[in-house]
Predict the 3D structure of the following.
Amino acid sequence: MRMRKKKHAAERLAACENLILPLSVHEADYRKAEENPTYYDIAEIFGNENPLHLEIGCGKGQFICELAKRNPDINYIAIEVCDDVAVLACERVKEAKLNNVRFMVCGAEYILKYFKQSTIDRIYLNFSCPYPKARYAKHRLTSPIFLPMYKKLLKNGGEIHQKTDNMHFFEYSIERYSELGFRMQNVSLDLHKSGFEGNIVTEYEQRFLDLGQPIYRLEAVNIKE
């Protein structure tokens, strides 16, 4: 379902500008982004040396807001490509007066332009679009386009935490992680019957739970050679 255009979205985003990280001009070819980096100074942005976690595809911000409340000693950057969705997440964090969250409003394919290698402790992929048709597989956030990027950015032992309602996307992701040498742990085929503690329910997750659908979850650990 396409998100309706939000009234005054640009003005509302501008009102949250202290939460939104600046972007450089993007090269038309995302593959050149790494060649022309404009790295963020994370310590300057947050004023500390705390661990850094990313959420890619933060939606309306329910997950990242609750996560940041629970973990004030972790810095979070939430990435969302859609302005009309990002504005809701920004306003939610602003209202909660959280100082350990910042946002990037752009596509995830540009992350190598902004983050130095081996600087991220954890990445969250919550209910990413599964792009079920094979011809769109390259757009999946666990495709061979994106996973090598994450591998570069994650520290040795850094983790990807993924949740989805789509079994086929889950299986596809496991195959891609294995190909790149990630080690899987805490794999669940029905999260809410697994006894897993500390789960934060996202907007999409609640929708699928209400429909009685199982939630698939895993943690992929980055093992550098």
Remarks:
- The chain has two domains: 9-23+33-116, 124-225.
